[in-house]
Amino acid sequence: MALTRAxxxxxxxxxxxxxxxxxxWRVTQSGDTFTFTFRHPPQREISVTDVGEVxxxxxxxxxxxxxxxxxxxxxxxADLRNANLIGAMLRGANLQQxxxxxxxxxxxxxxxVDLSKASLRKAKLVGASLKQARLxxxxxxxxxxxxxxxxxxxxxxAKLVGASLSGANLREADLTxxxxxxxxxxxVNFxxxxxxxxxxxx
Length: 202
Hints:
Blueprint: H1 2-5, H2 19-29, H3 51-59
């Protein structure tokens, strides 16, 4: 700090051999010039708003689409496996038959999204909003849905084998024929939900 703020002379003193001492010694030995290596900071990820850009960036190896603004996007059949969609706005988007295995959709807005027959194996949807989402025959095996809002979601025939639903809100969701084998259902709100066997949750 003193070196960068000095208006005239700066005196340095110390005891022992330290990396700073070696650096200062090289500077004094170089006379009135010295060199240093500047490392560029990582480029800031700009929020994505265009479906074509998402597809092209994904195909060229890009996976970071955090906070993307894709409400109402037409992404049916899209391959977005392992994509980072944390905090993404996907409200009302069409993701029918999309490949989202391993995708990070933590705290994403997936309200009213059509995920019919989509594959979300091992996807992370913790805290995501899936209100009124259509997940008919979707594969959510081993997905993490803890504290997700699934109020009124359609999960008819969905595969939730081994899924973590701890603390999720499934109030008035339709789980007719859904497979919940080995799923973590601790503290799940099933009030008014149609259960896999056709009964109504309390």
